[in-house]
Amino acid sequence: MYKIIGGDQKEYGPVSADDLRRWITEGRANARTQVLAEGTTEWKPLSAVPEFADLFSTAFPPLPASSAGATGWVTPEDLLLRDYALDIGHCLTRSWELVRKNLWPVAGITFLVMAIVIGINQLLGLISGPAMRDMIEHSRFSPGAILLVCGVSILSTPVYTILVGGLFKYYLKLIRGEAAGIGDAFSGFGPAIAQLALLGLVSSLLSFLGYCLCILPGLYLNVAWMFGIPLVMDRNMGFWEALELSRKVVSKHWFLMFGFMLVVGLVAACGVLACCIGMLVTAPIGWVAMLYAYEDIFGRPTA
Which DSSP helix (H) or strand (E) runs through 56? Predict the structure, then answer.
C-alpha cells in the first residue's frame, strides 16, 4: 500500500500498487509524484520506486542513490545525464487549481509587484522618453540617443529580475504547500540580489545582441534561459551557473519549451482582452505553470 502527495499538495491513500499504476496511466500521478510505501518513513519520487520505475523508463529514468548532493538537490551533473518529459496541459491544470484556491492573495501580491515594476519603468521612461520622441518625430537617430534608449532599457531589466525573483519564490512556496506571504514576494532583495541583478543585466544584454544577429540567436537564448531566475532563487546558484544549467536542460527539448512559452503567453494575453484586469489572474497562471514545469524537471530538495 502507498500514500502519495497530489498536485494540490494534499496527501492521498493508502492505495494499492494497481490503483497507483492506474493513476499514473490516467495522468493523476507522474514520475515526480512523492510516494510513501507502507512500513517506511521516506518519501520518494515514483520514478525511484522499483515497482513503478518501468513506467517511466523512457522519459524519467530512476535517479541513482547518489544523485542528491549535500544540499539535498539533484546535482546538475545528474540533471544533464537524464532526460525528461513535459506535460504542458498538466502544468496549466495544476496552476489553475493553485491560483483558484489562493486567488485573492495571489492576485493582490502579483498586482503589488507588477505595479512597482510599472512605476520603475515609468520613471526610467522619463530619462529615455525625450530622446525616443526626438528620434520618432524628427528622425534624428544619433548614436548618443540610441545608446541612451538601449542603455535605459537594458538597465531596467535587473530591477525587474529582482522583483520577479521574489514573486517566483512566493509561487514556489505555494506550490510546495509551505506558508507564503508578502515578504517572500520581495525576497529577491535578500542574499540573492546581486546574482539576480547580474542575471538580468547579462541575459538582457546577450539577448539583445542575439536579436541583432538575425533574431534567432536571441529567441533561442530567451527560451533556453527560462529557468534561470528560479534556479538562482531556489538553489542559490550563481547567475551564470543558473543560466547555463537552464540552457543545457531546456535545449534537450527546446521546441517543446518554445511551444510551452507560446501557450503561457497566450494565457496571459487573455487577461489583456479582459480590460487588463484579467492579467492579475492569467499572468500568475502562466508563471505558476512555468514553475510547475521547473518542479517536474529539476525536482525539489530531499530531506
Answer: none
182 lies in the same domain as 35 = no
Q: Tell me the angle at which helices 228-235 and 239-250 cross, rounded to the nearest 10 degrees.
A: 130
| Residue 247 forms part of a structural domain | yes
**CA distances from residue 135 to 1, 125, 128, 142, 211 in whole angstroms, order as listed:** 70, 14, 11, 8, 21
Structure-block grid coordinates of residue 130: 525625450
pLDDT in tens, 262-289: 999 898 888 766 655 677 789 899 999 9
Q: Which of 276, 267, 273, 242 is nearest to 89 (CA)?
A: 267
Answer for the pair 109, 182: CB distance below 8 angstroms, yes or no.
Answer: yes
Coil, helix or strand at residue 271: helix
The total number of structural domains that make up the chain: 2
Rounded to whole angstroms, how far apart are CA atoms 171 and 185?
A: 8
Which pTM was predicted? 0.72
User: Residue 243 contacts by C-beta under 8 Å, 6 or more apart in sequence?
Assistant: 199, 202, 203, 225, 228
Task: Give per-residue pLDDT as tens, 163-213.
Answer: 999 999 999 999 988 899 999 999 999 999 999 999 999 998 898 888 887
Quick check: is 229 in a domain? yes
pLDDT, one tens digit per residue, over 204-216 is 889 888 888 777 8
Buried/exposed code over 177-206 (b: 16+ C-beta within 10 A; e: otherwise): eeebeeebbbbbeeebbebbbbbbbbbbeb
Helix and strand totals (H; E) in the chain: 13, 4
Structural domain of 11: 1-49
In 3D space, the residue among 85, 44, 70 whose CA is nearest the CA of residue 297 turns out to be: 85
